[in-house]
Structure prediction request, 655 residues.
Amino acid sequence: MINEFSNSLHLLGSSHQIADMAARERLSLPPEKIDDFYNGLKNLPGLDECLLLNTCNRTEVYGASHSSFSPQVLQQYLGEFCKIESEFLKRYCYQHSGEKVVEHLFGVASGVDSQMVGETEILGQVKKAYDDACVRNTSGKILNRLFQKGFQAAKWARTNTGISRGQVNLGNVLCELSRRIFGKISNCRLLVVGSGDVAESAMEAFKSRGSQAITITGRTFDWCPLSRRKPDELAEKYEAFALSFSQLKKSLHLFDVILTSTASGQALINLEDILSCMKKRPAKPLFLIDAAVPRNIEETVAKAENVFLYNMDDVSEIANENLKTRMAEVDRCKTALSQRALRLWEQMSDYSNPPSSITQSINPQS
Amino acid sequence: MNFNDARDLFWLSGGFYGIAFLIGFLKNFRREIPSFRNVPLFSIAFGFLLHTRGLYLRGLEIQGCPLGNSLERIQFIIWSLILAYLILRIAWRLNLLGTFCAGLATFIGWFSLLLPNGDFPYWLAEDYTRLFSNPWIELHASIAIFSYGIFSLLTIVSSMYLVQKKALLSRKYDLLGSFLPPIHDLEHAAFRLLSIGVSFLTLSIVVGGMHWTRHPEFVTSTKLTITIILWMGYCSLFFLRFSNRLYGSRFAKTSIVLFFVAIFSLSFVSSKIREVSATWMPSTIHLKL
Prediction:
């Protein structure tokens, strides 16, 4: 028997778990349509509270009702709004009610349900969605409690389980390695040679951690103004300093972390350059990352004292190991979160016995 | 358990350091139990109080600074190590260093209690006279041992540096390395500890020298030579690091080696006691035990 309260929480959504990129693109709501979407949601009969979580990997509608409400109405509304046929929704959406909504939100907010397990960005996105709903006055007593508890559960999961342990993004892995060598990233002076994707990822990661001394240089400064992506563009984007490529070897000692990512096909930095550089900063370590293939830094450089040389294989291997560690914690985290979800649901439903919840997947196979 | 017995208190304090080590170890590797968050620090602090009482009782028993046998010297060094850690802990959050210190204090402390003849009761000899009848010498000994505590902390920091560096050079995923402090910070901390340790050692030598000039008969030439060599060793290490001639792994390794030399030299420092004890031990100690 389904009790009345279990019907008071509803969720209709789609995510990377069951929908591919093309399907998610159809379901995703562009920012300019969100106002209209909320206006329509408010007018659904029986739905008292609603919240939209709309990220690149998921589109979810959370709803709460004090009176009887048919979840099918939500599905019908989404289909009409996005002009999507019901068969498509049945195939690529999931629908939960009651306790399963609590459990699902806990999983989403903590990052267990994310494509990159344990990533922290999702918590910020959930908070933003909740703030947005509060501003629109569509979140009330039930959803407020649900989301506040969801934020607490997310914090608990990150603190007490290993789902966020280690970095899995290449830029973040480089930051973590730099932290183990120099301490605070904000004190590290980063030099990026070239403008590849890894270079940009590293700059973004360093910038987000407060690094104020990012410098970029590249061959295209000097001779290729029509290059597709010039280092000076990156310098502008990340408020970095630009260094003339001809000054590279003379300036090595000024930097703590040097990342090379050029397609020059030859070594730009050799052992002699590094030995000469280390004479000017003998007791201070130097962290070199060679993200280029073929390599831009001679392998013999690693022999110099206080020099740490990593290439992309090393960094990728560390990222993969970190991901494995996180995956190993997923089951433990899910079990703990489901227990927390059950406790919250018991409190919310105010029943001595846990109510039976309904998990109604539109597609029975999903 | 007798709370008025120094040895029992040493065992107990070792136990508290052990608890701090175990919980700190689990905590650092994310098996944290929230209610145990501050247990390692409190456990170290409580162990330190028991340790202090143990040394105080032993001091009362021998009527002087308890540095007469291997057990007392080791326990005094551990006490100095924990004291140095607690002082540093006021300024910085050094939980992992505390875990390392607590682990070392437990194992070395209990090992010293199990040493055969490590705690021979030299003060029970009929001809026992207080070694440190002069307060200047007591001050000299306590400052010197405190500097040894600082040097033992330097050894721990240097070991952490080497572990972190090895982990970084291996270019592999390393769980321990991710919890250790940055090598740059460790090297700075090591240099500061060396500076403090050398200052205290120098001070102790100055204080001891004042007594030696008045009573040269109390100091053997072996002790004098070893003390000066050790002091020069640490001073050289300080100046080499200060002038950036010795740094990184070589500095860390030299610090560790020098500390073991310092510990080894302790057995020569109180050579007068040994000469005394050697004459009465076979006939007196066995009877009294």
Remarks:
- Confidence is low (pLDDT under 50) at residues 271-289 of chain B.
- Chain B touches chain A through 25 residues (CB under 8 Å).
- Chain B has two domains: 1-119, 137-269.
- The CA atoms of residues 226 and 265 of chain B lie 7 Å apart.
